[in-house]
């Protein structure tokens, strides 16, 4: 016997009663209600209702912020699509499951010719942010980089650096020839892509085992093109170290850049037979002005004779030796503590943030200590005083996975609730108060180093074990997608939007 028509009367209730019922339903439940009948499908697809619920449940999202105060006819027509997109995205985030997974193969260390083409700078073995200064688990630095929806990675399918727009999935070749080079680091920052690389052959030898290779940096402006495309235009190239750098596991350099300046910190063991001291490595800091485009390529001019014809080529604007670093109290010595290296927005200073694990005095012992990050600002112009101040936030312990770009965790616990010492990588999207955290179990990770992924939104939090992002221990992304690398040399993208 057919059910009477009155069984679907919910859709025909007075507006006030209908809104009271809607208040008890989650966004994903509202979508499921459309399956009951045609009347319910029409009632729960009403754009006027859905746009109001969208503003109520997801006020922090970009979709809501772009809505006008008085809904236009165009927005009314798109009301159901907007609500379904946002509700679906946050339903997957709430469950900690991606809607789809994309994987891209990354280049091997050695190219098709058998020559090494990718050799990232090696991480430190010890760091002051760890208990007993011993790093519990190291992650090699990733050779891919992300900024504002743009992902640059070494594609195994193309054997080139590829820039991918994650909104459209369109890919663009970076005009950088890999053959005949060894890429050490790739970083996209401030709409400027910087590739640090070395020559494969040493141009002189320090001893029987260590040869010095000339190192360079090439920069590319990344700008929006036509038809949702991107233009990647070479800007300039510079030699980042005067004498070069050995390709070894002991010699390290870390860098950062803005759109106009580049800073590099160099840390090398002392190889002298007479003054060798494990606690007195050779340290220096250099800042370059890279603001002007230049056609001069120092890698093609070993003698430097053509440099005079290129006044706009990058130049050093500040240099600090180990005595200067000692004066500023930022010399790292044998137990480094540096975790962030930045150039200020006005390009007037370099900021170095150090993180030290300390133990409280006259209090109950804390098994993993407390973090104490301090930022030191060094002026680039003149001889002004340097400034030391407490860092606003908490840095996770150094594990080598993100070079000198460690991201701060929130102090109030709105995004990261796990103890600081178990965090491997952290991504915070502050405007919607959303975060992704790759971490160990906060209480058993010393014995069991299973890695977990925590996804926290303004209204939900979920934690699950994860094997897709343990290759480099690095995360990047937004509320729509999360990017990492697995142990099979694959770039993994969790999509929550489609």
From TrEMBL:
Reading the lineage from the top rank, the first entry is Eukaryota
Concerning SMART domains, the annotation shows:
FBOX
Q: Which PROSITE patterns match?
A: FBOX
Among InterPro entries, the record links this protein to: F-box-like_dom_sf (IPR036047), F-box_dom (IPR001810)
- Please list the residue ranges annotated as the F-box domain: 7-53
Q: Write the protein's name.
A: F-box domain, cyclin-like
């Amino acid at each position: 016997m057919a059910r009477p028509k009155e069984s679907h009367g919910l859709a025909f209730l007075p507006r006030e009663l209908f809104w009271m019922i809607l208040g008890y339903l989650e966004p994903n439940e509202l979508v499921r209600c459309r399956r009951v009948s045609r009347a319910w499908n029409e009632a729960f697809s009403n754009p006027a209702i859905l746009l109001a619920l969208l503003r109520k449940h997801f006020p922090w999202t970009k979709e809501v912020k772009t809505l006008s105060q008085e809904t236009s006819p165009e927005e009314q027509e798109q009301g159901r699509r907007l609500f379904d997109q946002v509700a679906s995205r946050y339903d997957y985030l709430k469950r900690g499951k991606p809607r789809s997974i994309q994987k891209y193969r990354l280049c091997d260390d050695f190219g098709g010719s058998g020559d090494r083409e990718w050799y990232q700078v090696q991480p430190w073995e010890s760091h002051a942010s760890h208990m007993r200064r011993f790093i519990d688990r190291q992650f090699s630095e990733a050779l891919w980089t992300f900024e504002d929806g743009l992902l640059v990675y070494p594609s195994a399918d193309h054997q080139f650096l590829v820039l991918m727009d994650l909104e459209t999935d369109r890919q663009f070749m970076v005009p950088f020839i890999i053959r005949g080079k060894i890429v050490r680091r790739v970083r996209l920052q401030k709409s400027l892509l910087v590739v640090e690389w070395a020559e494969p052959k040493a141009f002189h030898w320090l001893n029987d085992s260590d040869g010095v290779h000339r190192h360079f940096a090439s920069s590319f402006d990344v700008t929006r093109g036509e038809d949702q495309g991107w233009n990647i235009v070479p800007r300039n190239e510079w030699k980042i170290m005067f004498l070069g750098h050995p390709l070894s596991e002991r010699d390290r350099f870390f860098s950062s850049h803005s759109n106009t300046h580049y800073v590099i910190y160099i840390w090398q063991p002392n190889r002298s037979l007479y003054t060798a001291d494990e606690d007195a490595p050779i340290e220096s800091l250099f800042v370059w002005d890279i603001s002007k485009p230049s056609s001069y390529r120092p890698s093609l001019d070993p003698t430097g004779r053509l440099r005079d014809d290129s006044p706009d080529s990058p130049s050093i604007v500040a240099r600090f030796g180990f005595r200067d670093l000692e004066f500023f109290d930022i010399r790292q010595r044998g137990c480094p503590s540096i975790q962030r290296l930045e150039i200020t927005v006005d390009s007037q200073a370099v900021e170095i943030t150090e993180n030290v694990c300390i133990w409280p005095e006259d209090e109950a012992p804390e098994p993993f200590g407390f973090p104490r990050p301090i930022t030191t600002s060094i002026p680039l112009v003149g001889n002004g005083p340097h400034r030391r101040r407490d860092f606003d936030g908490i840095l996770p312990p150094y594990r080598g996975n993100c070079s000198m770009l460690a991201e701060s965790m929130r102090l109030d616990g709105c995004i990261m609730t796990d103890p600081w010492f178990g965090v491997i990588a952290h991504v915070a999207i502050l405007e919607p108060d959303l975060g992704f955290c790759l971490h160990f179990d906060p209480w058993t990770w010393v014995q069991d180093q299973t890695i977990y992924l925590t996804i926290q939104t303004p209204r939900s939090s979920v934690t699950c074990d994860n094997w897709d992002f343990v290759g480099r221990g690095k995360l990047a992304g937004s509320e729509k997608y999360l990017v990492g690398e697995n142990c099979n040399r694959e770039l993994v993208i969790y999509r929550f939007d489609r």
